[in-house]
Design brief:
Number of strands: 13
Order of helices and strands: EEHEHEHEHEHEHEHHEHHHHEEEE
Strand order of the largest sheet: 2-3-4-5-6-7-8-9
Radius of gyration: 19 Å
Largest sheet: 8 strands, parallel
Structural class: alpha/beta
Helix content: 25-40%
Shape: globular
Length: 346
């Protein structure tokens, strides 16, 4: 009997957190083993707000890539109320900064320096629209009176519509979409509006966080949503639309920071990202759609060539390690102790 395999061009992770220092050196090899490139999130402490800082961070990431592996970090600036048009022009000219990230102030991990009002970033956004530098959106509102499960929908309805009206030619990626409303907005938008989708938001609904008690390793922001939203995300991912592509939002946090009285938000999936996506696509009877979602559509949106080389997934049940080293700490992956049906073999 022939064991089923799936071989395709080396993919890209178009939304990734690798942190810095010893933690970064622990997780970068996991991504580099699977992906040729990754869009690197800039929400460090302090955040990456200038081209100079992005260049320094790029060099630190490259120093963590294992010898013999080709991996290219695609750097991102952190948008603040004070980001200037001149810094945007420098970013575009750098050749290594590929986007700018919008975090609503206080929305997620290390977002304290985020934009308090998009009107404050008008000059930067106009320059981004002019030069074609994409805006990556953490699409949530942070108003205290908005239910956490509705933050993305309210953002789409109140903020995103106005953003599209004010900057009609601005290239945008709505990151880690979690709702049917966000998926529909992107589907209906012009070609220069796209979205990334994570494995956790397609594998699970919000019940996973509370199954048998609080399960902190399934807690992320935007938070897991309703079953109807999960199904809408899968439909978008397998639709064949080039507007939807892979972005894990893998977010490393030490075990003691996740399993605490105020646990940090973020699911760690970098250890087996492709295998998790393969499970989603196989469950939807659409495994043949995975290669374009993982290796083609993101590259096309960012104007990058399809990667040389290939990866191969084999249909094989296996159980990843229940935890990994994170510098001097430990990290627990999202699906610790759970069997996966596909395994990366090259």
């Amino acid at each position: 009997m022939t064991i089923p395999t799936l071989t395709f061009s080396r993919p890209d992770d178009m939304h990734l957190h690798v942190r810095d220092g010893d933690a970064m050196r622990s997780v970068v090899p996991m991504t580099a083993r699977q992906f040729a490139r990754a869009i690197i999130m800039p929400n460090l402490r302090p955040p990456i707000t200038t081209v100079e800082q992005a260049g320094e961070y790029l060099r630190r990431i490259l120093s963590a890539v294992p010898q013999g592996i080709t991996f290219t970090p695609l750097m991102v600036l952190y948008l603040t109320d004070k980001t200037t048009a001149d810094e945007i022009r420098k970013a575009k000219a750098s050749g290594f900064v590929h986007a700018v990230k919008y975090y609503p102030a206080g929305a997620t991990t290390n977002s304290d320096s985020g934009v308090t009002d998009l009107a404050h970033a008008d000059a930067a956004l106009l320059e981004m629209e002019k030069c074609g530098l994409p805006l990556l959106l953490h699409g949530e509102v942070t108003d205290a009176d908005i239910d956490i499960f509705d933050r993305e929908t309210v953002f789409v309805e109140q903020k995103l519509v106005n953003l599209r009206r004010r900057y009609p030619a601005l290239r945008m990626v709505l990151e880690h979409i979690t709702t049917k409303e966000a998926a529909q907005f992107v589907m209906d938008a012009p070609a220069h509006v796209a979205a990334t989708i994570t494995p956790q938001h397609m594998l699970y609904n919000r019940n996973a966080i509370f199954k048998g008690g609080i399960r902190p390793h399934y807690y992320c922001l935007p938070i897991l949503k309703r079953e109807e939203d999960r199904k809408a995300l899968i439909a978008a991912a397998i639709s064949g639309s080039p507007k939807f592509f892979l972005g894990t939002d893998s977010a490393p946090h030490a075990k003691h920071d996740k399993e605490s009285c105020c646990g940090h938000a973020g699911c760690f999936t970098a250890h087996a990202a492709l295998e998790l996506y393969a499970q989603v696509f196989e469950n939807a009877n659409a495994i043949d759609k995975l290669p374009d979602f993982a290796a083609k559509y993101g590259a096309q949106f960012y104007g990058l060539p399809i990667n040389a080389g290939t990866v191969t997934l084999r249909k094989e049940s296996w159980i990843p390690a229940a935890q990994f080293s994170l510098g001097s700490d430990e990290i627990v992956p999202m699906d610790a102790g759970e069997a996966l049906a596909w395994k990366l073999i090259t």
